[in-house]
Amino acid sequence: MRAAPHVALDVSEGDGLAEDAISARLGERVRRDFPDADVARGVAGALRVLAVELGGSQQDMERLLAAAVLIAAGDVDRFRSAVRLAREDWRDLLVAGGLGHGNWPRVLDEELGSQ
Fold first, then answer.
1. pLDDT over 70 at 18, yes or no
2. I want to staple 94 with a disulfide (CB 3.0 to 4.6 A). Which of 59, 90, 100, 103 is the partner?
3. Full-prediction pTM beyond 0.85?
4. Domain residues of the chain, as ranges?
5. Residue 95: C-alpha distances to residues 55, 59, 115 (Å)
Protein backbone atom coordinates (compact mmCIF):
# COMPACT_ATOMS: atom_id res chain seq x y z
CA MET A 1 0.00 0.00 0.00
CA ARG A 2 1.40 3.36 -1.04
CA ALA A 3 1.38 6.15 1.53
CA ALA A 4 -0.30 9.42 0.63
CA PRO A 5 2.22 12.12 -0.29
CA HIS A 6 2.99 14.64 2.42
CA VAL A 7 1.85 18.16 1.68
CA ALA A 8 4.05 20.76 3.27
CA LEU A 9 2.28 23.80 4.58
CA ASP A 10 4.90 26.08 3.05
CA VAL A 11 3.48 26.43 -0.46
CA SER A 12 3.63 29.91 -1.87
CA GLU A 13 0.82 31.63 -3.68
CA GLY A 14 1.03 31.61 -7.44
CA ASP A 15 2.22 28.01 -7.61
CA GLY A 16 -0.22 27.25 -10.43
CA LEU A 17 -2.08 24.56 -8.49
CA ALA A 18 -5.84 25.07 -8.60
CA GLU A 19 -5.35 28.81 -8.30
CA ASP A 20 -9.10 29.48 -8.41
CA ALA A 21 -10.00 26.70 -5.96
CA ILE A 22 -10.06 29.07 -3.00
CA SER A 23 -12.97 31.49 -3.12
CA ALA A 24 -12.54 35.02 -1.84
CA ARG A 25 -14.66 34.31 1.21
CA LEU A 26 -12.79 31.11 2.03
CA GLY A 27 -9.47 32.93 1.60
CA GLU A 28 -10.68 35.57 4.04
CA ARG A 29 -11.65 32.86 6.55
CA VAL A 30 -8.20 31.27 6.23
CA ARG A 31 -6.54 34.63 6.91
CA ARG A 32 -8.84 35.24 9.90
CA ASP A 33 -8.37 31.75 11.40
CA PHE A 34 -4.61 31.68 10.74
CA PRO A 35 -3.47 35.26 11.45
CA ASP A 36 0.22 34.53 10.88
CA ALA A 37 0.66 35.43 7.19
CA ASP A 38 3.16 32.64 6.51
CA VAL A 39 0.89 30.04 8.09
CA ALA A 40 -2.12 31.35 6.15
CA ARG A 41 -0.16 31.13 2.88
CA GLY A 42 0.85 27.58 3.75
CA VAL A 43 -2.73 26.58 4.53
CA ALA A 44 -3.92 28.16 1.27
CA GLY A 45 -1.24 26.30 -0.66
CA ALA A 46 -2.19 23.01 0.97
CA LEU A 47 -5.84 23.70 0.10
CA ARG A 48 -4.89 24.20 -3.55
CA VAL A 49 -3.09 20.87 -3.58
CA LEU A 50 -6.07 19.23 -1.88
CA ALA A 51 -8.38 20.71 -4.52
CA VAL A 52 -6.37 18.96 -7.22
CA GLU A 53 -6.45 15.70 -5.28
CA LEU A 54 -10.22 15.90 -4.71
CA GLY A 55 -11.05 17.10 -8.21
CA GLY A 56 -12.61 13.76 -9.13
CA SER A 57 -15.11 13.87 -6.26
CA GLN A 58 -17.68 15.81 -8.32
CA GLN A 59 -18.47 17.81 -5.17
CA ASP A 60 -18.54 21.55 -4.67
CA MET A 61 -14.88 22.38 -4.11
CA GLU A 62 -15.52 25.34 -1.82
CA ARG A 63 -17.60 23.03 0.37
CA LEU A 64 -14.81 20.45 0.57
CA LEU A 65 -12.04 22.94 1.28
CA ALA A 66 -14.14 24.89 3.77
CA ALA A 67 -14.81 21.69 5.70
CA ALA A 68 -11.06 21.29 6.27
CA VAL A 69 -10.75 24.90 7.42
CA LEU A 70 -13.76 24.61 9.73
CA ILE A 71 -12.41 21.43 11.31
CA ALA A 72 -9.07 23.13 11.89
CA ALA A 73 -10.56 26.12 13.73
CA GLY A 74 -7.23 27.93 13.41
CA ASP A 75 -5.06 25.01 14.56
CA VAL A 76 -2.41 23.79 12.11
CA ASP A 77 -2.30 20.28 13.56
CA ARG A 78 -6.07 19.97 13.25
CA PHE A 79 -5.78 21.25 9.68
CA ARG A 80 -3.25 18.53 8.87
CA SER A 81 -5.62 15.96 10.38
CA ALA A 82 -8.46 17.33 8.24
CA VAL A 83 -6.32 17.00 5.11
CA ARG A 84 -5.55 13.38 6.01
CA LEU A 85 -9.25 12.75 6.57
CA ALA A 86 -10.08 14.29 3.18
CA ARG A 87 -7.62 11.95 1.49
CA GLU A 88 -9.14 8.94 3.22
CA ASP A 89 -12.78 9.80 2.47
CA TRP A 90 -14.08 13.23 1.51
CA ARG A 91 -17.54 12.28 2.80
CA ASP A 92 -16.17 11.92 6.33
CA LEU A 93 -14.50 15.32 5.90
CA LEU A 94 -17.84 16.93 5.04
CA VAL A 95 -19.61 15.37 8.03
CA ALA A 96 -16.81 16.30 10.45
CA GLY A 97 -16.79 19.85 9.09
CA GLY A 98 -20.53 20.26 9.56
CA LEU A 99 -21.17 20.38 5.81
CA GLY A 100 -22.38 16.82 5.25
CA HIS A 101 -26.12 17.42 5.20
CA GLY A 102 -28.62 19.03 2.86
CA ASN A 103 -28.41 22.35 4.67
CA TRP A 104 -24.72 22.74 3.79
CA PRO A 105 -25.22 25.85 1.59
CA ARG A 106 -26.81 27.72 4.51
CA VAL A 107 -24.13 26.51 6.94
CA LEU A 108 -21.42 27.56 4.50
CA ASP A 109 -22.96 31.03 4.18
CA GLU A 110 -23.17 31.31 7.98
CA GLU A 111 -19.51 30.32 8.38
CA LEU A 112 -18.01 32.22 5.45
CA GLY A 113 -20.53 34.98 4.79
CA SER A 114 -22.85 35.25 1.82
CA GLN A 115 -21.40 35.18 -1.66
1. no
2. 100
3. no
4. 24-112
5. 18, 13, 22
